[in-house]
Write a structure and sequence with these properties.
heterodimer, A: 812 residues, alpha+beta, Calcium-transporting ATPase, cytoplasmic transduction domain A, Rossmann fold, Calcium-transporting ATPase, cytoplasmic domain N, B: 59 residues, mainly alpha, 3 helices, 76% helix, elongated, disordered C terminus, transmembrane helix (chain A), copper ion binding (chain A), translocase (chain A), HMA_dom (chain A), transmembrane (chain A)
Chain lengths: 812, 59
């Protein structure tokens, strides 16, 4: 088998040979020609067969000829130079970076281009006089790097990257280092002339360095503590803010009145470590987006036919938002239908996999309704708009209040749960200790009071969760489970109900199983069937044809195909009809649940023979996973389809699983809401846009995706379909993360007790604080990191062994 | 020993210079993409090479 020199795909029998190299298709050959004629064949030297076969449909980007749309996409525009930032999902290797950054060699109008690999974006400076934007996009498409331009790009606001955490961390680190140097001489309480002479300079310098730490770096904690107090919650930031305040005030007091060095070193170190924890927790997968809605799917422009059936009929590229009821629009092959519409002309074969996860396309009769979100797969269509974009069946879901605001605020994590008790305990200890000192030595009272608040500042406590969760987040990512935020792991540990979508989630979208039911076909009939299927372009017949044994192909005497119904053919005085049941066997009757199945029916010589039933294959490990999860969680299956699959699901899943069918997107959302009202913590696992409401409503919404670069609805986490069976392991890892956090709380409380011992007895010197605080923080970080790594290894390794074992069993 | 004032101010100034350099580099987005530059760095020479080669073959 020859491999294509450009894209590495296997060449079919008719491979193209050019320049002594094989190519699988014309597109690949063209890319090679373009690159080699422009001295860019180094592309092929960097990586072996790095290319992408260009697959762009002609006219897909016609809407870029509309200046109004282009204007919205450009970041900057002037006469000489335009800047645009394009998302190119195909970027995957160093060759991609190289060729895209050398675009200027291909067209003089392109000035520079720069790739951001992690985000898969390309930033191009070009001159609009020499190359128009649509030509630029065309060039990219020709090379196989089709940019992804969607409706959401057109109304994006200026994107501001929030770098304030890095600044704060930088400031704190800078001050921490310098203050450490300056406070070093006084750690050893030596009486030395020069040291005494200069200590004031050192102290005031330390004071100066601590100002930005307190007022800038630590501002987050003050604000959060204030907000918490205002709503009556003692969150973890309250004792932290209290500690920082007391540290700063007491140190300043000591410096001003020449009582001591103060605790500036501990203060800046504390803030630095805390911010470090935040930084570590903040791992983002920049190339994944967790915030998508329907706008990311829909094209931004569409071809409208103005004044149809009149003399001045013309085509115009308009923005999707400007479509009104009654407009006539043109849908090309492989284009997404952005509005609910009525079919006027053309063979409609709509793939709703974006919406429902169902991979088998549906054919639609003339004058029937096509819903927004479907993708046309059989040629050109003319449709009439029934509803504008915002009011379509699917997009209406986004009018639900769930999408309005971030309402998932009610979750209280472990740290904040414990901090309420912690704060109260600390305050009472400090007051008790102060009262006790009143009887021993009243002059020590303020010293002891502040010392308790200082040493009790829950630095280690606050670091436990960020480091454990941040670490687990990375481990999950390595195993292809991508979380939006670290605290989702804590939410996962609390989940007690899991809701699955059926189509596309429990079933895989790729493979179909075909079984035959009915009378056996004779050899003659089989060959007639094959010959007829071969002539058809319907996806169902194509996949059936590929699966069936190919025996001798006959020339058909007669062939006709009716869209949405089926086809009829004849050869050697035998006739055959293939397609929908009604078309194939006009007079016969079938039970309803047989009719509910996706099937190709066959009749020969007007006699009904049987049907090929196409089923989505259920993912591997579905049964095992449900058994595993069912042990401590309630399981539900929601499906938008009819209940034709109920029986096979019942066979596959444990009896306790509850199933609901015929669920509309809105119903799914309500279902989750009801479960939550019953006091359950719900995880929703889905895939299509029709699950978007349920995903948003649930406590943890997980999207399962065959290809994570393809767009998925808004969610909390994205799961690669290949690790579907590992969900159980992910749950137990989340649980063990929960346990690790609890352990580290104990550990940090132990440190606090030691510190309190010093503080209550009035022995808290700056050097004790300067040693104890970093020590506790670092040991917490070490403990959480090591133990989360260890438990991940244990849990996920067990899983690897299990799979091997299963595979061996299957083999036997 | 008054030299300590000079030394101190020098050390603080040097520290602040580096700090400002850090802030500027963050602001300019130098830390936004930490992967691509590591790949790009390896290309530069090769581009010139392939060009020169092709010129030679042209002759």
């Amino acid at each position: 088998m020859k491999l294509c020199y450009h894209c590495g795909e296997a060449c079919k029998s008719d491979s193209l040979v050019f320049d002594e190299k094989d190519f699988c298709c014309n597109g690949c050959k063209t890319v090679y020609e373009i690159l080699s004629s422009n001295d860019l064949d180094y592309y092929y030297a960097l990586d072996n067969r790095p290319g992408i076969s260009p697959k762009t449909q002609l006219g897909k980007f016609d809407f870029l000829k509309n200046d109004e749309i282009v204007e919205k996409l450009l970041e900057f525009k002037s006469k000489e130079v335009c800047i645009v930032n394009l998302l190119i999902p195909e970027i995957h290797c160093s060759s991609c970076i190289w060729v895209l950054e050398n675009l200027s060699k291909l067209h003089p109008g392109i000035k520079t281009s720069q790739v951001n690999f992690p985000e898969k974006t390309l930033r191009i400076h070009f001159s609009a006089e020499k190359i128009t934007f649509s030509q630029l996009v065309e060039l990219l498409c020709k090379l196989g790097y089709e940019p992804y331009i969607s409706l959401s790009d057109s109304d994006k606001k200026e994107k501001n990257i929030d770098r304030s955490l890095i600044y704060k961390l930088g400031v704190a680190g800078f001050a921490f280092g310098n203050i450490m140097f300056l406070s070093f001489p006084e750690y050893f309480e030596v009486k030395e002339f020069w040291l005494d002479q200069f200590k004031y300079v050192f102290r005031w310098l330390m004071f100066a360095f601590s100002l930005p730490v307190v007022f800038y770096s630590a501002s987050t904690y003050f604000i959060s503590a204030f907000k918490g107090l205002k709503s009556g919650i003692l969150n973890i930031d309250v004792p932290i803010a209290l500690g920082i305040t007391v540290l700063f005030l007491r140190s300043t007091f000591e410096v001003v009145f020449d009582l001591g060095t103060g605790f500036f070193d501990s203060l800046s170190g504390l803030v630095f470590f805390l911010l470090l924890g935040r930084f570590f927790q903040q791992k983002t997968y920049s190339y994944l987006s967790f915030e998508r809605d329907y706008k990311s799917y829909f094209p931004i422009g569409i071809t409208r036919i103005n004044h149809p059936n009149t003399q001045n009929q013309n085509e115009e590229q308009v923005e999707v938002y400007k479509l009104r009821k009654g407009d006539k629009i043109l849908i090309r092959n492989n284009e997404l239908i952005p509005v609910d519409a009525k079919l006027l002309e053309g063979d409609a074969l709509i793939d709703y996999s974006f919406v429902t996860g169902e991979a088998v396309p549906v054919s639609i009769k003339k004058a029937d309704k096509i819903y927004a979100g479907g993708k046309q797969t059989a040629g050109l269509l003319q449709v009439e708009v029934l509803k504008p974009v915002e009011q379509s069946y699917l997009t209406q879901l986004w009018n639900n209040e769930v999408f309005d605001k971030n309402f998932k605020g009610s979750f209280q994590d472990l740290t904040n749960k414990i901090s309420g008790y912690f704060t109260k305990a600390i305050l009472s200890i400090s007051i008790l200790a102060t009262i006790a000192w009143y009887f021993i030595d009243p002059s020590m009272m303020p010293k002891v009071f502040t010392a308790v608040l200082i040493i009790a500042c829950p630095c280690a406590l606050a670091l436990a969760a960020p480091f454990t969760l941040g670490n687990l987040l990375r481990i999950f990512g390595q195993h292809k489970f991508y979380l939006k935020e670290a605290n989702i792991i804590e939410k996962m540990a609390n989940i007690d109900a899991v809701v699955f979508d059926k189509t596309g989630t429990l079933t895989s979208t790729k493979r179909n199983i075909i079984t035959y039911e009915g009378d056996l076909l004779s050899e003659e009939e089989k060959s007639l069937l094959n010959s007829t299927l071969r002539a058809s372009n319907h996806p169902l017949s194509r996949s059936l044809y590929e699966i069936l044994e190919q025996n001798d192909i006959k020339t058909l005497d007669y062939f006709t195909e009716e869209v949405g119904k089926g086809m009829a053919a004849s050869a050697n005085r035998n006739s055959i009809k293939i397609g929908a049941f009604k078309y194939v066997a006009e007079n016969n009757e079938l039970e309803q649940d047989v009719l509910n199945q996706t099937a190709v029916h066959i009749s020969t010589n007007n006699h009904y023979k049987g049907r090929y039933i196409l089923k989505n294959e259920y993912r591997e490990n579905v049964t095992q996973l449900f058994k595993e999860l069912g042990q401590n969680k309630q399981l539900f299956v929601l499906s938008g389809d009819n209940d034709g699959e109920r029986k096979s699901l019942e066979k596959l899943l444990p009896l306790s699983t509850k199933m609901s069918f015929n669920q509309k997107p809105q119903d799914k959302l309500q279902f989750i809401k009801k479960l939550q009202e019953e006091g359950k913590s719900v995880m929703m696992i889905g895939d299509g846009l029709n699950d978007a409401g349920a995903l948003k409503q649930s406590d943890v919404g997980v999207v399962i995706s065959e290809n994570i670069n393809v767009f998925s609805p808004a969610c909390d986490a994205i799961l690669d379909a290949s690790v579907f069976g590992k969900i159980g392991q992910f749950f137990s890892l989340a649980n063990s993360g929960h346990r690790i956090i609890k352990f580290s709380f104990l550990l940090s409380l132990f440190y606090n007790l030691i510190g309190l011992g010093f503080a209550v007895t009035g022995h808290l010197s700056p050097i004790v604080a300067a040693i104890l605080m970093p020590l506790s923080s670092i040991s917490i970080v070490a403990f959480t990191t090591v133990s989360s790594q260890y438990s991940a290894k244990r849990i996920l390794k067990k899983d690897a062994k299990n799979i091997q074992y299963q595979a061996e069993l299957n083999y036997q | 020993m008054n030299i300590i004032y000079v030394l101190l101010s020098i050390s603080v100034v040097v520290a602040i210079v580096f700090f400002i350099a850090f802030i500027i580099s963050v602001k300019r987005g130098q830390y936004d993409d930490t992967y691509t530059p590591s790949v790009r760095m390896l290309f530069e020479d090769e581009v010139i090479d392939s060009k020169e080669n092709s010129k030679i073959t042209d002759k």
